[in-house]
């Protein structure tokens, strides 16, 4: 099995500047502006004296030096922050060619029943997996058989300090464990996933230890977890390991049901909040999906794992480090069409593991 890849640094920010105006033009503009401002200020003072009031500066009386600074002819320097590269981009994995022209740098399709590999692209590369992490979170909660009707409370400990991500589950929100599990799997709710980990026997640290122990038990030797949401880029795995995780999670009906749900409504205080799936394919009648999870952080790119019935077979699909908001969905469609074509399941030489 290929060794885990390690990351590198990012390039510095690029600065763009507009062309500067000539010195003589700026001097003329400043002189003209100063005269105009001085005239305006004088008129304002005279009017104030006529009204018997002290000559205070009005909002419209702008000092000449301020006007000169906001002049549209003044050069402006704008700092542009470059897009943060994913680990796969830094490793050069996107340069790997494949006959399907996938936008994901890592891809794997495995027969669920026979473990036959139908498609493989960089499937041993170890990368951040973002919210695919929540599939392991759901698996542990389910196997611990903790009561799903127990009410859990979102606290400040569940607020994301890693990425500063937004959540509609405010501190103090109370939902049942089952609702938290539903939102974590379907809508990838980070605070819900963290709350599930905190309420595990022994707390969050015990939960993370259990995540890694379960990965080891399943034979996921390229996998490491440091928290239950996937916000940390230190949660890493390979496509081959994730296929094992999908197969294990699929054995639990509740994980199949909740992960493939399209919508959910939960009561938060006096309000009913609507949540939706992060995977549009579950609404597509062309797909028969038994279990799924999406993920995204900049270090991981767009990720997707699924169990689906394609070409008359139960298959497991893993797509990691896809560039572009909808490219992982496009890649899944390319694979589906390929599997339903006359070429399936014959692999091009470039796609063989």
UniProtKB/TrEMBL annotation:
<dbReference type="InterPro" id="IPR018044">
    <property type="entry name" value="Peptidase_S11"/>
</dbReference>
<keyword id="KW-0732">Signal</keyword>
<dbReference type="GO" id="GO:0016787">
    <property type="term" value="F:hydrolase activity"/>
</dbReference>
<feature type="compositionally biased region" description="Gly residues">
    <location>
        <begin position="1"/>
        <end position="10"/>
    </location>
</feature>
<feature type="compositionally biased region" description="Low complexity">
    <location>
        <begin position="11"/>
        <end position="26"/>
    </location>
</feature>
<keyword id="KW-0573">Peptidoglycan synthesis</keyword>
<feature type="compositionally biased region" description="Low complexity">
    <location>
        <begin position="36"/>
        <end position="49"/>
    </location>
</feature>
<feature type="domain" description="Peptidase S11 D-alanyl-D-alanine carboxypeptidase A N-terminal">
    <location>
        <begin position="97"/>
        <end position="322"/>
    </location>
</feature>
<dbReference type="InterPro" id="IPR001967">
    <property type="entry name" value="Peptidase_S11_N"/>
</dbReference>
<keyword id="KW-0961">Cell wall biogenesis/degradation</keyword>
<keyword id="KW-0378">Hydrolase</keyword>
<protein>
    <submittedName>
        <fullName>D-alanyl-D-alanine endopeptidase</fullName>
        <ecNumber>3.4.21.-</ecNumber>
    </submittedName>
</protein>
<dbReference type="InterPro" id="IPR012338">
    <property type="entry name" value="Beta-lactam/transpept-like"/>
</dbReference>
<dbReference type="Pfam" id="PF00768">
    <property type="entry name" value="Peptidase_S11"/>
</dbReference>
<feature type="region of interest" description="Disordered">
    <location>
        <begin position="1"/>
        <end position="60"/>
    </location>
</feature>
<feature type="signal peptide">
    <location>
        <begin position="1"/>
        <end position="17"/>
    </location>
</feature>
<keyword id="KW-0133">Cell shape</keyword>
<comment type="similarity">
    <text>Belongs to the peptidase S11 family.</text>
</comment>
